Amino acid sequence: MTNIRLESSWLNVLQPEFEADYFVGLRTFLKDELASGKQIYPPGNQIFAAMDACPFDQVKVVILGQDPYHGPSKQMVCVFPLVQVSKNHPH
Predict the structure, then answer these.
(1) Among 67, 63, 54, 66, which Cα is nearest to 13's?
(2) Under a CB-based contact definition with an 8 Å cutoff, are residues 44 and 2 in contact?
(3) Cβ neighbour number for residue 63 with a 10 Å cutoff
(4) pLDDT tens, residue by residue, 20-35
(5) Residue 67 in contact with residue 57, Cβ under 8 Å?
(6) Contacts of 40 (CB under 8 A, 6+ apart)
(7) When comparing pLDDT for 85 and 88, which is higher?
(8) End-to-end CA, the chain
(9) If pLDDT is split at 50, 70 and 90, which confidence band does 89 have?
(10) What is the maximal distance between C-alpha atoms in the chain?
(11) N or C end of the chain, less CB within 10 A?
(12) DSSP symbols for 30-47
């Protein structure tokens, strides 16, 4: 959880959230889970990948959702169109 990558303009906007009690608790929980040997998806340096790739002032819309991170190499999607469901997609 110490390898978080986040473009600086987002860091300025989100800093109050990162310091909020709920977020501190979430961060502590995730660190404890990692320390106990649990696998967390996506890896720390990819948690904010979409925000790291685009400065805050260039964002017009944010759509939140959850991808099914069910195993290694399944967490690499930021935004994607699903035109046809593949045999391997967990739908």
Answers:
(1) 54
(2) yes
(3) 5
(4) 999 999 999 999 999 9
(5) no
(6) 30, 33, 34
(7) 88
(8) 29
(9) low
(10) 42
(11) C
(12) HHHHHHTT---SS-GGGT
Neighbours of 6 (CB within 10 A): 17
Evaluate the omega torsion of the peptide bond into residue 42 and state whether it is cis, within 30 degrees of 0. Answer: yes
Specify the length of the chain in residues: 91
* Tokens linked to 79: 């935004």
To which residue do tokens 């169109």 refer? 81
Q: Which of 11, 79, 74, 78 is nearest to 49 (CA)?
A: 78
Enzyme catalytic residues: 67
Look up residue 67 and give its two tokens.
């991808």
